[in-house]
């Protein structure tokens, strides 16, 4: 795949903008993606039983299976648990933007992220929407990303082009998320776009599968947000004859994009000093491999040991057992750490191995560390991405509302 510049604006017929509207004390907090010719959209949402007001609204619109022209995003306020006022806020945002763009209200999707339980102040929202629309440009994907960010430390956007059959297609994605991120999505918003012509049913099937193999394989802190939303949209510009081969080729590219965005979120975990990949090999079933990988990646004891650059395999084997896989034999487990500094095995047949502490420290001191767990039972594998947990994670979240 060839990497492109421009984020989602690498695709034709996509305009973007972002500005400061007052939902946060400073920095951009209102963003817009505009599709003059319309796009087909599929979405997946949080599994948290408490959900942002935007989710019910978006889900109802997506069931209508029609074209959309705008995705409006605010950060700094989650618009969650605000009662009837929260529902009215969604409608006010959507209707105001629709009037400004001179489109139908049901052509607008909306997402919010930020502090939970605080009603949104929409004073002068019509003027802010007017500015937002006035600033739309083919060159400003970055501003739209920045307007999504909360505790993120850098913008996350990617674009690629690649061949599907004999056609060249483009895919692009923008996402936010650094904390309250756990498998089954997290406090994350992600918008994936392609110019490949796909029906909504195809988009939904592709999105469901790709989320399971990317965003749902990410954990930062074990908390699942009420606001999680991932959209996959198609401009339909590139007509493709779809069959098993072309769908598989497109899915491969979409998965690569989604996994790279996922890794960027793990690297930007709140207060993180390390990107961590947990690989589980030779499980009896894929479900067990994934359950164990998530269990290890979610363990605060494992994550703090990683921050301390401590090859403490005891915490890992404890997390393996705590994840309660269906099939597990302790005397077959092997554990190792790997990074650019080398490889060190610390456990075999379920017992500790003597290892060079100096070499282990060198391995654990790298910014990217891989935990490799071999269960010795079968042929199923899985991987999950996470980060370490530092003192800064506590500081960031202790001060989140201030």
Automatic annotation (TrEMBL):
E.C. code: 2.3.1.35, 2.3.1.1
Binding site for substrate: 150, 176, 187, 270, 397, 402
Cross-referenced Pfam families: ArgJ
Primary location: cytoplasm
Catalysed reactions, semicolon-separated: N(2)-acetyl-L-ornithine + L-glutamate = N-acetyl-L-glutamate + L-ornithine; L-glutamate + acetyl-CoA = N-acetyl-L-glutamate + CoA + H(+)
Pathway listed: Amino-acid biosynthesis; L-arginine biosynthesis; L-ornithine and N-acetyl-L-glutamate from L-glutamate and N(2)-acetyl-L-ornithine (cyclic): step 1/1; Amino-acid biosynthesis; L-arginine biosynthesis; N(2)-acetyl-L-ornithine from L-glutamate: step 1/4
The keyword Cytoplasm appears for this protein: yes
HAMAP family xref list: ArgJ
Protein's job: Catalyzes two activities which are involved in the cyclic version of arginine biosynthesis: the synthesis of N-acetylglutamate from glutamate and acetyl-CoA as the acetyl donor, and of ornithine by transacetylation between N(2)-acetylornithine and glutamate.
Family (UniProt): Belongs to the ArgJ family.
The protein's name in its UniProt record: Arginine biosynthesis bifunctional protein ArgJ
Species this chain originates from: Fundicoccus ignavus
Lineage: Bacteria, Bacillati, Bacillota, Bacilli, Lactobacillales
């Amino acid at each position: 795949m060839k990497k492109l510049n421009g984020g989602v604006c690498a695709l034709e017929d996509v305009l973007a903008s972002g500005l400061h509207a007052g939902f946060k004390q400073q920095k951009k907090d209102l963003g817009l993606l505009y599709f003059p010719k319309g796009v087909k959209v599929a979405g997946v949402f949080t599994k948290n039983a408490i959900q942002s007001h935007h989710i019910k609204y978006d889900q109802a619109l997506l069931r209508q299976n029609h074209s959309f022209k705008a995705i409006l995003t605010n950060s700094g306020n989650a618009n969650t648990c605000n009662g009837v006022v929260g529902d009215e806020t969604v409608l006010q945002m959507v209707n105001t933007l629709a009037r400004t763009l001179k489109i139908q209200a049901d052509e607008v999707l909306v997402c919010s992220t930020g502090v939970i339980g605080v009603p949104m102040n929409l004073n002068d929202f019509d003027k802010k929407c007017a500015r937002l629309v006035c600033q739309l440009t083919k060159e400003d994907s970055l501003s739209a990303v920045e307007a999504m960010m909360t505790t993120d430390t850098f913008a996350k956007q990617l674009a690629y082009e690649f061949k599907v059959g004999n056609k060249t297609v483009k895919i692009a994605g923008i996402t936010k998320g650094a904390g309250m991120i756990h498998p089954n999505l997290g406090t994350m918003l992600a918008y994936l776009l392609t110019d490949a012509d796909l029906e909504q049913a195809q988009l939904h099937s592709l999105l469901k599968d790709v989320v399971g193999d990317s965003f749902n394989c990410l954990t930062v802190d074990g908390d699942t947000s009420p606001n999680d939303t991932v959209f996959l949209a198609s401009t339909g510009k590139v007509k493709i004859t779809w069959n098993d081969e072309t769908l598989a080729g497109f899915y491969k590219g979409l998965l690569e994009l989604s996994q790279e965005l996922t890794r960027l979120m793990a690297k930007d975990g709140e207060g993180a000093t390390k990107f961590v990949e947990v690989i589980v090999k030779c499980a009896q079933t894929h479900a067990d491999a994934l359950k164990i990988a998530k269990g290890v990646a979610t363990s605060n004891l494992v994550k703090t040991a990683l921050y301390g650059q401590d090859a403490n395999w005891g915490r890992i084997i404890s997390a393996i057992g705590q994840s309660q896989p269906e099939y597990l034999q302790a005397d077959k487990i092997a554990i190792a750490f790997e990074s650019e500094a080398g490889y060190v095995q610390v456990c075999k047949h379920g017992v500790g191995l003597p290892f060079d502490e100096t070499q282990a420290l060198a391995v654990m001191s790298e910014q990217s560390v891989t935990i490799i767990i071999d269960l010795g039972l079968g042929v199923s594998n899985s991987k999950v991405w996470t980060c370490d947990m530092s003192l800064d994670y506590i500081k960031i979240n202790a001060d989140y509302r201030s």
